[in-house]
Amino acid sequence: MGAIIESVHACQPRHWKLHEGSVALAARAANECLQQANCPANNLDLLINTGVYRDQHICEPAQASFIQQRIGANTEPPPEGQKGTFSFDLANGGCGFLVAIQVIDSFIRSGEAQYGMVVTSDMDTNPAVSEGANFTPAGGALLLSSDHSGYGFSEFHFDPFSHHAHMFDAYVSWVKNKKPRRLRLLPYSGHALLMEKDDRYLAACVECSQTALNHFLEKVGMKPEEIDLIISSHYPPGFPRALEESLAAGSKKNRVVDVTDRFGAVYTAGIAASLQAAMLSGQWGNVHNVLFLAVGAGILVGVALYKVKPPHTSISY
Q1: What residue spans of 175-238 are helical by DSSP H?
Q2: Residue 130, pLDDT score
Q3: Is 235 exposed, middle or buried (0-12, 13-18, 19+ CB in 10 A)?
Q4: How many angstroms separate the CA atoms of 67 and 212, rounded?
Q5: For the chain, which domains are there?
Q6: At residue 182, does pLDDT exceed 70?
Q7: How many C-beta atoms surround the C-beta of residue 102 within 10 A?
Q8: Distance (Å, rounded) from C-alpha 206 to C-alpha 34?
Q9: Is 272 left (phi over 0), alpha (psi -120 to 50) or beta?
Q10: Is the dihedral of CA 75, 80, 84, 90 positive or negative?
């Protein structure tokens, strides 16, 4: 009994509300996701936030608790003998979203949870003074539930490639009297996001993804041609297209969902955005075996297999 997908939603800041922060963006994605599935927020047993780049670069307290409050998921202590909503942050970079899915899947398989949600968002709160932050802001949410049909998530696999750890680095630093590129007229002193990336980082991510994918297929006893669709990360910029090109030779084409034209190079919300696009386009209803592939700094690559329910079963997006 694995976790099945009930609904998914991805969104970006509204143009007229550019001050919308990462918590608000994640909460909006979560609310839309719940509404589409007709699932009350109080039904959530687990709420895991995997966003990395947050409002004012705050690490503590957990952003998941703020998101839980905004969506109204069991905000009061549960009555004696009953469960509330267990919320927490899971910080694992570009692979965090997939790791959170695995955590919820484990809770569901053990019978400790019936509904779980992964929520995420990334936002550069000071884009005028940040350096190298070439991701686009976005939020995403994925609602998972228990199922006895044999469909859903069945296998997870993570491969570390630590010899590439030097290729990507992101950190928050204090800057003093920094001249902004735009928006502000006065020099800025405060925290700024700095991202440094090797020119070969994209190629390394693709190469490591191919290796991890081969390891995974060998582990589950499947051939590449048995995979119908790939839902992947969208960072570093250009990753979905580069992954598709690397896999196209001698295999099915157009399997990697690419929403770069719509969402840009989103960071942790890439999987949610790709999944939403696959469902809206009708691709999801015509496939059986779907691979979820996430790549993050380290380099770490995560792969998961999802068995899609037959078309007569509705999924919200």
Answers
A1: 201-220
A2: 86
A3: buried
A4: 33
A5: 3-149 (3.40.47.10), 156-162+199-307 (3.40.47.10), 168-197 (no CATH)
A6: no
A7: 20
A8: 34
A9: alpha
A10: positive
Measured between alpha carbons, how far is 224 from 157 in angstroms, rounded to an integer?
16
C-alpha 232: how far from its chain's center? 9
Q: What pLDDT digit, counting tens, does each position of 232-286 carry? A: 999 999 999 999 999 876 566 779 999 999 999 999 999 999 999 999 999 998 9
DSSP letter (8 states) at residue 236: S
Dihedral-angle region of residue 38 (phi above 0 means left; psi in -120 to 50 means alpha; beta otherwise)? left
| CA 24 from centroid of its chain's CA atoms | 16
- DSSP designation for 18: T
- Dig out the tokens for 273 from the structure: 């955005």
Torsion of CA 244, 249, 255, 260, to 10 degrees: 20
Using an 8 Å Cβ cutoff, are 45 and 118 in contact?
Answer: no
Q: How far is Cα 142 from Cα 304, in angstroms, rounded to an integer?
A: 15
Task: In whole angstroms, give the CA distance from residue 295 to residue 159.
Answer: 10
Do the beta carbons of residue 190 and residue 175 sit within 8 Å?
Answer: yes
Bridging pattern class, strands 46-49 and 86-89: parallel
3-state SS, residue 88: strand
Q: For 287-300, how does the pLDDT look when each residue is reduced to its tens digit (9 = 90+)?
A: 999 999 999 999 99
- Tally of CB atoms within 10 A around 68: 26
Cβ atoms within 10 Å, residue 200:
11
Nearest Cα residue to 126 out of 70, 65, 67, 191: 191
Residue 126: pLDDT band by 50, 70, 90 thresholds? confident
